[in-house]
Recover the amino acids of this structure.
């Protein structure tokens, strides 16, 4: 029997293997630095913010089937892998409206961002600026277009619009976006009425949060979040200053159930830049919008937050690309929780993808630092998948493609 040859331990070698780290007072920063996936950031976020805040981000409509289906379809993607290619240099950049962005991943418009973190929308826009990405500001944002332009002047910024029941209100925010240097307008069309979000109803969600007995316990559990709320400017909708009723009441006041294709034409007449329509959920509507000459469409089920049991955007994507992809930029959102999800959509023909929950988990976890970590994770995954499939640029990603397994 052969035995190992024993020797006296090499203590210096042993010491070199030990990674010495001093304890840190900034435990959350350390946790964010160690995060490997977006889900890791979500777990940190859940411990940092009150339940009503986390539920607003994570939840969707009714039984939350639509969002679940979106995630399931991404799990059904199968990639084609080409080997023996020189992938020492990977270029994930694309051009959008004549300007280069470093990654085909855009920041979705999300409402109430200062609800998740006291800095709010400017923190996300700052990360977009730092990484040469595009940030979309929501009509339901807690920062106005002019405030965002003042605080983060060099970020490429798009403005998301709901056509309100009073067209003068719509024109007011459109003009502010125009005066503040926003380059494109995103019209959201899947909200003629608000979806039924059970978590928010049960939590009694309002902006600003109302002080109830349950709130006192929430303050005790998340004191830092509440301290930031009380010691920074009033939390309110930038476009609806002074509103202090429930989100359901607000939605009923601003979402216009009479919005039609003619309103898209009206918007094109009052906005000189690109108009993108978000919330397209069938091929017929996509074709009709293409006839109107819009710059782009976003295949979206609103993150599963509007129509429950609606179509899954990723399943609709190949059909839309085939029918109108030559004439219109096609984007997609809903359930994109990794760079590999983003790669899948781009490989199936999307111009780029929008992410919402992914960066909101980051901002809840640690503000601007958490959003930056989310971008790093998404970019790492995307570039890694490019290399493993043999794609050196976005043209090759779409040439190689991807498919959904039955």
């Amino acid at each position: 029997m052969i035995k190992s040859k024993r020797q006296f331990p090499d203590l210096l070698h042993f010491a070199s293997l030990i990674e010495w780290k001093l304890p840190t007072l900034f435990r959350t920063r350390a946790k964010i630095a160690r995060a490997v996936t977006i889900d890791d950031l979500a777990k940190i976020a859940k411990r940092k913010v009150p339940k009503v805040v986390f539920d607003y981000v994570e939840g969707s409509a009714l039984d939350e089937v639509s969002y679940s289906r979106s995630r399931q379809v991404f799990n059904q993607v199968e990639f084609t892998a080409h080997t023996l290619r020189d992938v020492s240099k990977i270029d994930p950049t694309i051009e959008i409206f004549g300007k280069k962005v470093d990654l085909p991943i855009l920041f979705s418009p999300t409402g109430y961002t200062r609800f998740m973190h006291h800095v709010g929308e400017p923190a996300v826009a700052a990360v977009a600026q730092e990484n040469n990405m595009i940030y979309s500001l929501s009509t339901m944002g807690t920062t106005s277009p002019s405030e965002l332009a003042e605080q983060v002047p060099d970020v490429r910024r798009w403005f998301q619009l709901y056509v309100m029941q009073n067209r003068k209100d719509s024109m007011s925010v459109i003009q502010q976006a125009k005066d503040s240097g926003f380059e494109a307008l995103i019209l959201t069309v899947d909200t003629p009425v608000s979806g039924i979000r059970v978590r928010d109803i049960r939590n009694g969600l309002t902006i600003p949060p109302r002080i109830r007995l349950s709130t006192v316990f929430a303050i005790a559990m998340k004191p830092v979040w509440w301290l930031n709320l009380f010691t920074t400017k009033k939390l309110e909708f930038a476009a609806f200053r002074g509103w202090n009723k429930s989100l359901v009441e607000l939605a009923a006041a601003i979402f216009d159930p009479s919005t039609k294709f003619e309103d898209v034409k009206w918007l094109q007449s009052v906005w000189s830049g690109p108009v993108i329509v978000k919330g397209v959920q069938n091929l017929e509507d996509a074709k009709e919008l293409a006839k109107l000459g819009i710059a782009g469409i976003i295949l979206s089920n609103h993150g599963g937050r509007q129509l429950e049991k609606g179509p899954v955007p990723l399943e609709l994507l190949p059909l839309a690309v085939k029918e109108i992809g030559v004439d219109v930029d096609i984007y997609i959102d809903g359930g994109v929780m990794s760079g590999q999800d983003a790669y899948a959509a781009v490989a199936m023909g999307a111009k780029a993808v929008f992410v919402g929950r992914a960066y909101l988990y980051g901002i809840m976890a640690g503000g601007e630092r958490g959003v930056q970590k989310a971008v790093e994770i998404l970019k790492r995954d995307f570039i890694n998948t490019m290399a493993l499939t043999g794609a050196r640029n976005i043209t090759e990603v779409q040439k190689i493609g991807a498919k959904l397994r039955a």
